[in-house]
Amino acid sequence: QVQLVESGGGLVQPGGSLRLSCAASGSIFSIYTMGWYRQVPGKQRELVAVITAGGSTNHADSVKGRFTISRDNAKNTVYLQMNSLKPEDTAVYYCNAVLGSFSSWGQGTQVTVSS
């Protein structure tokens, strides 16, 4: 089992940048596949990016080239670097940890992109 806490969200203008962090505790962090998801009211939670224990990454087409997921196992932390932000990126961003059939979620952090 792993506990996840997201941070780094906030208000940013279109074209700006934010870096989200997800701090993990309570388990062996390095073995988990980690992901970032986002959700807005009235819509399904959607995948943003995933990074495996081996460091392989996948990014949703909507964020490819703008967002980058990374992990620092020494700090038990996963990051989401968000550049060239658009109003359509506004959402609550959630961190996710997966090991086999086990899945754990953080509480989320709000990202608002607006002028």
Descriptive report:
It is a single chain. The chain is mostly beta strands and 115 residues long. 0% of the residues lie in helices and 54% in strands. It contains no helices and eleven strands. A hairpin with a 4-residue loop joins strand 7 and strand 8.
Quick tags:
single chain; 115 residues; mainly beta; 4-stranded antiparallel beta sheet
Produce the secondary structure layout.
Blueprint: E1 3-7, E2 10-12, E3 18-25, E4 33-39, E5 46-51, E6 57-59, E7 67-72, E8 77-82, E9 91-99, E10 102-105, E11 109-113
Parallel strand pairs: 2-11
Antiparallel strand pairs: 1-3, 3-8, 4-5, 4-9, 5-6, 7-8, 9-10, 9-11
Q: Give the helix/strand class.
A: mainly beta
Low-confidence stretches: none
N- to C-terminal separation? 40 Å
Order of helices and strands: EEEEEEEEEEE
Average pLDDT taken over every residue: 96
The count of helical stretches stands at: 0
Helical fraction: under 10%
The total of beta strands comes to 11
- The rounded Rg comes to 13 Å
Largest sheet, strands/sense/barrel: 7 strands, mixed
Fraction in beta strands: over 45%
The coarse silhouette is globular
